[in-house]
Write a structure and sequence with these properties.
This protein is mostly helical. The chain folds into two domains: about 190 residues, MFS general substrate transporter like domains (Growth Hormone, Chain: A, Up-down Bundle); about 160 residues, no CATH class. Helices cover about 65% and strands about 5% of the residues. It has a three-stranded mixed sheet. Strands 1-5 form a two-stranded parallel sheet. Helix 2 packs across helix 6, helix 8 packs across helix 12 and helix 12 packs across helix 13.
Length: about 400
Amino acid sequence: MGTGMEEDSRGLCAGGSVTPDYVPFQIWDSLQGLSTYIRSMLSTQALLSAIGVGEKSATVIGATFQWFLRDFMGMLGGILFTFYQGSNLDSNAKMWRLVADFMNDIGMLMDLLSPLFPSALIAIVCLGSVSRSFTGVASGATRAALTQHFALENNAADISAKEGSQETVATMTGMALGMLLAHITRGHPFAVWFLFLSLTIFHMYANYKAVQCLSLTTLNYERSSILLQYFMQSGKVLTPEQVSPREHIFPFWARWRRLIKPKLQHEHVRLGAKASRLAHSDLMVLAELARSCYKDAKYLLLEKQGDIYVFIHKHANPADILKSYIHSLVIANLMNKSKSLHTHSQLWMNEQYPIFIEKLRSAGWAAERLLSPATVWRAHWVHGPANS
């Protein structure tokens, strides 16, 4: 009886070491990984055929050069992608996870197309390699962020090792099935394309379901906006599980949505704005605000043409940046309801912000910082009387 109780206790501890969304995510992640490795066998077979493997006319130096150029373009694409988008991966892990797998689909599609256009072989192969390089960077970065999310007891290394083993099993199974299907469909291009496109559709669906399972507890632009808007309306804070289905996770969704609907509140905020781009009149307004409404703050807010520009002090810490962003969202909420935006928003911040942060923590949110792209522009100002 004592032994049985000990086993139950161990099982409970093991189950409590990860978040509840870990298991459903891993199920869908394994299924999408399996479809990826099956398709990779089909696309690799097509690529090797395009390069000339098995043909007497093909030369070793020609195939080597094409493979080298393919890898070179992939590495270059990865470096450029990291340079331009590296700071965005943490704050939008769900979206970039979908983007990573979509770009992987594009890369494999290019490999499968390569035998059909021999005159454009190098361009197609390089394009596919660049697509997969985006996948490598985005997938690796988002996987690290998700591993930290799953680890409730600082057991990220243990979770990462288990995920690696799971991926290895999916790889071995996918490769075996892929080799079998590649052998069966050899010489039947219609069957290859039907199988590839069917697995690609399933892969995209499985990825969407995997990302949809996630209930991230970190605060980014959109989650903060959803939480604050609900709090200002009801005085309550949503849980991560309640916020998750309200998020928009499809990439670039905002661009086409703006054509038919107005901006969401967080889209009005420009965090880390550059003060040197302001006109002299705006700088004078900002100086007056620094002496009045924001004399004790490590940030300044300026409302201009419906947008809120947030200027971060060079000594601001992560808590200050989170506070500045929430304050800007409060102004966005009050924009059509009050003429004294800065005064009323400051009153709200003084009275409600501590309560809001405390309720966030109680609901399971990580309210220490805002996940945002690196705030490049910071400013320095000194609070004091106006110069005579």
